[in-house]
Structure formats: structure tokens, C-alpha cells
Amino acid sequence: MEIREGISSVAFTVIVCLCALWNFSVRAQALTYSHAQGLPSTISPSGKLGIQSYSLTVFKNALSKNGIDLTPATSTIPNSADVLINLIRDEKNEDSYYWITPLFAFECGDKINCTPNAGSQTTTIAVSYIALSKSEGVANIAERLSELTAQYKGSDDFIVLADAMRDELKPLFPKTVLTFGTLSLAGELHANTDNLWIIADNVPLFSEVGERGKLTGIAADLVRDILDEVTLKQDILSAPWERIAKEAMTKSNVLVFSVIRTNERDSVFHWITPISRNLHGLYGIDKPYFNSIVDVPKSYRVGTLLEDYRYKVAVEQGFKVQAYDSWQTLVSALINNEIDTIFGSQGAIDFGCNPNQFKCETITLISKYNISTAYLALSKKDTCVLVLEKLKLAAADVKMSDKFNEQLISWSDMVSQEYGIAHHTEHGVVHLWNPN
Q: How far apart are CA 82 and CA 214, in angstroms?
């Protein structure tokens, strides 16, 4: 049920940091915002006010039903707010922010920096975004903000609002058009997806090679639906992770799943949409619960997979560590008292334990470590950022569709009945643990 994590691992789980198991709804989250400076001087003061009003309305409408409190920043320090609205994305600030959603596109030059890889149109452009300042523990917030704005951009209410703003801009900027949820004052935007290469690792139940070589599983279903949404007919290929990682780091337009999100991978991938999450920790039989892994007695013998990142973590924590070649052998070792705990996840325990041979429910979590999340991701090297937005909007539409949710329900029933794997779903994402 898991693939080893590390600099080059894939799984159907991706790091999003435990952060209090926040239920991924960002409830009661308070964010400050300010309007970034730097809109083109060709826009009049009243036009800039109109753009600011429109942009803030888009953001507030996207968050309106999700309990997120937006308040104006009071600091006089430039760019000190959590969220900057209409920040131009350029080479200098690319790595300093989470880019939530694009708002406007302008012709660049004349003191307006161009946005790298911003489409295949002949005119170079600057793209302004809602951007969240990067800091420890906010990647999960950025993910949810990005999803909510993508969902809102697929609504009729957004189209009405955007059309009104377009009509307001057209007298001075007659080429203004709405493309990929972005109002472009520079005319039609182009994001060529014809040369996308779609590739996945073999992950049981999520993406595995079935009859006649076709990839099956809920992750494969999701990606196939997204490709249909953007009218792409490319096949989904399967390859070992080592090859996937190499291609993603060296080529553009490589669409891959499922990739564990880590800080070091932010330079390699654009993150499109989460597929699944997993709760990692120490699991044992008849052991007390500890609030933190650092509180677990160092005399405990800990079992991990061979070459798994958790082996190193357990060693660094001072445990006696033994590595095994499969989850089945790990569970057997626990049952036979060769080890005291397994460093893994509930999904791994369910996968490795045979309920016909042992009461698997007696293996319980004794200490949490983190939550990981697996994504559909896009290689970042020379890949157009508008391709990313095109796929994000498609992913949001698919996850809200009756078709995908029926697929998800059917898959969930099968996993429960045939495999007995603990899980639940939220916002179209599989969480591999019981909700309580």
C-alpha cells in the first residue's frame, strides 16, 4: 500500500505536515491581505481600483463558504501580508510564494517584469496572482486556497463577475479576454498541452497495470477524467519511479502521479491536485499511546521497510531498528514479537496483515509522526504555467462532477469489502485512516 519515500519516491500519500490533523478545510483560519504594487502604468488610477475590487471579490467569493477570515493588513512594511493580491510572478520572486491562482495578464516590459514560461503566444506577458507568502507549515493552506479558487472559477457566478470586469476594461484594452480563469489585457493566451507525457508508478489500488496493459485504480480514473476534461487522448504510461523522477527533472510537460510532496520537490514540480493522504506513525500491539514519537521509550524495537525514509528517522530518534523487505514480513515480525512497533501507516498495516490469520484490529497507532499527501504533479522545467492552470481548473471540475464521485464511491466500497482497508474521502481525496 505504500512506496518508499525519499528524494525519489512515489506513493499515494504526500507530506503536508501533521499540523494538528486540520481536516484540510482551513476552518477558522485568519489571513491578512494587501494589494501588491506594480500594475502597468497604462492603467488609470480608477482602473487599478476596479482591478483591485474585482480581484478581492474573486478571492472572497471563493472562500466565502469555508470559514476563512480575510482581513486587510495593517503593517506599513511592503509585502508583509500573508496574501498579496495581483503580485506579478517573475524570476526573482518565483520561489518566495505559493502561487494560488492567476488573475490578470499584461504585456510585459516598461518596468513590468515578464513571467517565465507564460504561454506560447508571440507576445511576452506578465501574469498577476493571488500569492501566499511561504513560511513553515502553510503549504496545506496554500493547497486548499488553490483548490477553492479553482472551484470558484468553474462557477457561473465567476463567469458573470469576470465578464463584467472584461467589459469595463475593453474600452482602453480592446484585446481583453478571459482565458484559463485569467483576464488577459494582452489578448488570447495559449497553453499547448498536445505534447504532455502522462506517466505513473505502479501503486496497488491507485494506479496498477490491469488487463491488456491498461492502468486501473482510482488515481488513474481521476487523471483520465482530467484528460477528458481538457480533451486530451494521450495514453497513461507506467514506469519505475527512478525513470519518472529522471524525466520530470529534465523534461517539460511531464504529468506524473502519485508524487509525495516535499519542500525539496517544490523546485521540480508544479502541484496540480491531491490524490490521497496517509497518517504515518508507530503501530503496535497492546502498547500505550504516546502524544509524540519523542516520548516513545527508546528501548522499543522498531521495524521499517528496507531503504525507507522512516528507517533513518527511527535511527535518529535513538530506537533499535530492524528493516524488512515487505509490509507482510513486517507485520509477521510484530506478531512474532521480533519487534515492538512498526513505523508505517494504517494503509500499510491493513495491506500487510492477513485478517484470516490474525486479529488485525489489535494492531493500533501508538504515536503519530506526520501526514503525507500524494499529488498529480507537472514537471516544472520549462513548462508553461498556463498549462498548470488549465489542468488545475480541469481537476477542480472533475472532483466536483457526479461521474468522478460515483467512481470514488464504487472504489471505496470495493476497497472496504475486498481488502478491509481503513479510509474515508474528503473533497475528492482518499484519506487512508478512519475519520474518528
A: 44
Whose CA is closest to 271, among 16, 6, 8? 16
Q: Find out whether 73 and 81 touch, Cβ atoms under 8 Å.
A: yes
At 351, the amino acid letter reads F
The reported pTM is: 0.85
Same-domain pairing of 45 and 139: yes
Q: The domain spanning residue 298 has which CATH number?
A: 3.40.190.10
Q: Is the pLDDT of residue 11 over 70?
A: no
What's the rounded Cα separation, in Å, for the pair 307 and 320? 16
Q: What does the pLDDT look like over 352-410, one tens digit per residue? A: 888 888 999 899 999 999 888 999 999 999 999 999 999 999 999 999 999 999 999 99
Query: Do 59 and 42 belong together in one domain?
Result: yes
197-200 vs 182-184, strand pairing mode = unpaired
Domain range enclosing 130:
36-184
Residue 2: per-residue pLDDT: 52
Q: Is omega for the bond preceding 258 within 30 degrees of 0, making it cis?
A: yes
The HSE-up count of residue 376 (CA atoms within 13 Å, CB side) is 29
Q: Per the structure block, which three cell numbers stand in for 157?
A: 457566478
pLDDT score at 348: 86
Please indicate, yes or no, whether residues 304 and 370 belong to a single structural domain of this protein.
yes
